[in-house]
Amino acid sequence: MALAISQTDQTLFFSGELDRDTLMMHSPFTLLNKLQGEVIFDFSALTNVDSAGLAWLIQQIARAKTLKIKIEIIKVPAQLLSLAKVSAVTDILPITN
């Protein structure tokens, strides 16, 4: 499968798989360079997330801080929540629901 990322205003919609195989197609991730203020990552259409996807997400959060962008993550799949809990990083993920 693939990863598709689309944008509507300040919201980035992720669909497909966020894993080590699909992330290479979006490296470097440049969409944050075009945004400012508050940005929403909508994960409602993600079907698979692995530890590489979680690491990539943490990297984007750190990068957003340097760009003075606030990220809000919504509609997080259970698989990503489980990985975050096992990795003890839920506190650094800006999940709102």
TrEMBL record:
Residue intervals passing through the bilayer: none
Pfam family, one: STAS_2
Domain of life: Bacteria
Location of the STAS domain: 39-97
Record-linked InterPro entries: MlaB-like_STAS, STAS_dom, STAS_dom_sf
Record protein name field: STAS domain-containing protein
